[in-house]
Amino acid sequence: MVIEPRQSVSILHAGLAPIWAILVSMIICAALINWAGAPVFEAYGLLVKGAFGSAFAIKETLTRSIPLIFTGLAVSVAFRAKFYNIGAEGQLYAGALAATFFGTGLVTMPAPLMIPFLVIVGALAGGALLIVPVLLKTHLKVDEVVTTLLLNFVVLLMVSYLIEGPWKDPMSLGWPQAASIIDEGVLPTLMAKGRLHLGLIIALIMAVLVWLMMRYTVQGYEIRAVGHNAKAAEFSGVRVNRTVIMTAMISGGLAGMAGVSETAGLKGYLTLDLSPGFGYTGIAVAMLAQLNPLAVIPAAVFLSAVYVGSDAMSRAVNIPTYIADVLVGVSVLAVLCSVMFSQYRIRWSK
Amino acid sequence: MDSEPILAFQGVTKRFGTLVANDDISLSLRPGEVLALLGENGAGKTTLMNILFGHYQADEGAVLVDGKELPAGSTLAAIQAGIGMVHQHFTLAENLTVLENITLGTESLLAWRQDIRSSRKKLDAMMQDYGLSVDPDALVSSLSVGERQRVEILKALYRDARILILDEPTAVLTPQEASRLFSTLKSITTRGLAVIFISHKLHEILEISTRVAVLRRGAIVGQLDTADANREQLAQMMVGRTVSRPKLSPIEPGTPVLQIENLTSEGMGATALKQLNLTVYAHQIVGIAGVAGNGQGTLADILSGLNSSFTGSLLINDAAYCTGDPRAIVASGVGRIPEDRHARGMVVDMEIWENLMSEDIRSPAMSKHEILINSKAALRRAEQQIDQFDVRCEGPMAETRLLSGGNMQKLILARALARDPAFILANQPVRGLDEGAIAHVQGQLLEARQRGAAILLISEDLDELMSLTDKMAVMSNGKLSAVFDSQQHSAAEIGLMMASGGHFEATTGQDSGTGELRGH
């Protein structure tokens, strides 16, 4: 068996890779569902119905996709520059901390000012969390995967300390949660019923902005050049370290916005279960989207649908909700494989 | 030739997609022969040898050793059949001794202990036999390039190779080392071994081979005895048409453009620069000769703005050189052609137009306020440059990785020459290119000289330097010799300087025992 590079990579191959990956992962998970003793087609039917079967389901799926769009964008920008930011989870919480610090009464402004203000401080906090890891990388060549990943736990423990201690809401009946965001800072819901909030619009705008930046600006050009070949970029005059630092700030900022959006949009206050791993799922989103900022949107909606739909499915046919994690995990693996197969082919021979 | 062929290719064909890398190749090799495989880069020489050595499998045809078919796709079978390959890039473990490198892989994994004494005896006998001397206990990391090559040859012979393949063996050698290699090859073939010598250097082939096979576009276009061959005929067979490289026309040098004084770089060893002095004038090409790894890379990095840890003064047009900042260097009128097209020259995963604007993307013409890229202007300019430099591609939006080496080099040239630079640093500008592209690149450099540019040409190819430069200096061990007229010394003399640390003694004269290595 020999693996050979393909002479040319057709757009069809490259573009359809995620679709193939999703199909493959559904087939593999079908075996698991079957093994768990549930009817496969009915289970998938329930999954789709749970995610898109009603107006409520659709709104729920979209609501859940908001933080994934933010973290997916954060990861795709960073990975484009080969800055492997695994810390979107921590940056999300940093954004949530900033929103809580400024949004629970410290600053009061009318809503049209208050909301952008919270989004910006959240983004700054998310970016600030990456300052140390990125400087360690650019100046001392410390692996950012390790530093950003471990910072997640530091931030989570910090959040835990704050909401159990100094920031604990006295009105919370003993629950570990911070005070509520003041009314001016709460992201309004988009429709009368349901939880879908303004965060979706902000997320979509950010996706378009990031796409425009990567494609049409000098900054985006330099990020791509550094990611593809830092030596050649340096040779032609790109300030490589500065570009990596900028990339980290943008990435951390986007992840920080996810924290603001969850705190000020969905929950209204900071808790320790604000994110069930949105930062890590953001990596899956970015990989499914093949780092394309616009493709992050459908990828985030897809993964969110899997999570929301599998809740409904597991209730109805009695399969653990962990099937959602398996489905997501397998589809990301399948994407990575299909990306490889779009560039290489296997030749079987004796 | 009456003996039976030791090796025969029969109708070997290898395709990569639509590209036919080897087209129905039939060749035979007899004991005692040196068969030269001549061809341009991409003609299929290396593919053919990779098939022989089991790295690739042929789509059609067979390889016979001693009349028996060699199992396809097995390197082990090739070694066992007596085929030894000396790669262009050595495959030695630097942290092991010569003896350890040579015996590596020949002993059974299950053996209780190595039988060092008999290995040493065998190696000693081989060195005596073939006149190849290397200290068996020296660490490979302490050896010179020429010595390493000898170790590679010994390694192949130790495995009882009867067919020795040398892939561009002289690329890294001084002329003296090359002539020593040739005498080794002669002593090997008198003992009945056969050698395949891959090269695109005509004078070497005429000197060492007994027979020449010329490859062009994957097919053999001719085979002849070297005794019946001459340079012009081989060149024309190889290229398929007569290509004449451009020649220097005399022109008066202008004002000094690049002035280097007492340039000393930090660091240890041969690549650290030691007290360099050099002036390059307008309308002048100055060549730097030398074996790779003697400081040329350090000098190129400093002049490209990648390295600023040095002392001494660097002036360009009487202004201090903007060291350590490629962007400022480009802005001050320097054009740079880097040594490695893929690693430094181009971001091959990006599109052609994106690479063409990489040096001046922040200029007002290419972007608004250094923020928004002016893609219309960039695309328009890219189209002009593609036209002007005859880059064969689908258009400015094509991916750069799809280009051949020659076309990629034309892009780099287009980018470097875009703003009519006063000083051009050209580091190995034609390495690995085919004749047509070489002529194009050299022609562009000569045009730039005509326009008044000062050009510093770093090359390992003496022929290129002697035909293309006004003045030359030799770099060795981080030191630079005095500048001399390019016509003043023969290749052999320059080779001596390359080997002797840049100190040229007039007493070694034209008729020193080393002999003329290159016809010119």
Can you describe what's shown?
- The complex is a heterodimer of chains A (350) and B (520).
- With 350 residues, chain A is mainly alpha-helical.
- Chain A contains 14 helices and two strands, in the order βααααααααααααααβ.
- In chain A, 71% of the residues lie in helices and 2% in strands.
- In chain A, helix 12 runs parallel beside helix 14 (322-343).
- The longest helix of chain A is centred in the last third of the chain and has 28 residues, at 240-267.
- The termini of chain A are close together.
- In chain B, a hairpin with a 3-residue loop joins strand 17 (367-368) and strand 18 (372-373).
- Chain B is an alpha/beta fold.
- Chain B has helices spanning 45-52, 75-80, 98-103, 116-130, 145-158, 175-190, 202-208, 231-239, 296-304, 326-331, 341-345, 352-356, 375-388, 405-417, 435-451, 462-468, 491-499; strands at 7-16, 19-29, 34-38, 60-65, 68-69, 83-86, 163-167, 194-199, 211-216, 219-225, 256-265, 276-281, 284-289, 310-316, 319-320, 334-337, 367-368, 372-373, 423-427, 454-458, 471-476, 479-480, 484-485.
- Chain B has 17 helices and 23 strands.
- The radius of gyration of chain B is 25 Å and the shape is globular.
- Helix content of chain B is 32%, strand content 23%.
- In chain B, the strands form five sheets. In chain B, strands 13, 16, 19, 20, 21, 22 and 23 form a seven-stranded mixed beta sheet that branches. Chain B has a six-stranded mixed beta sheet with strand order 6-7-8-3-9-10, sandwiched between helices.
- Chain B folds into three domains: 1-82 and 162-239, Rossmann fold (3-Layer(aba) Sandwich); 92-160, no CATH class; 256-346 and 420-508, 3-Layer(aba) Sandwich (Rossmann fold), CATH 3.40.50.
- The A-B interface holds A 6-8, 216-219, 221-222, 224-225, 228-229, 231-239, 349 and B 16-19, 57, 73, 304, 306, 325-327, 330, 336, 338, 343-350, 354, 358-359, 361-362, 367, 370-373, 375, 415.
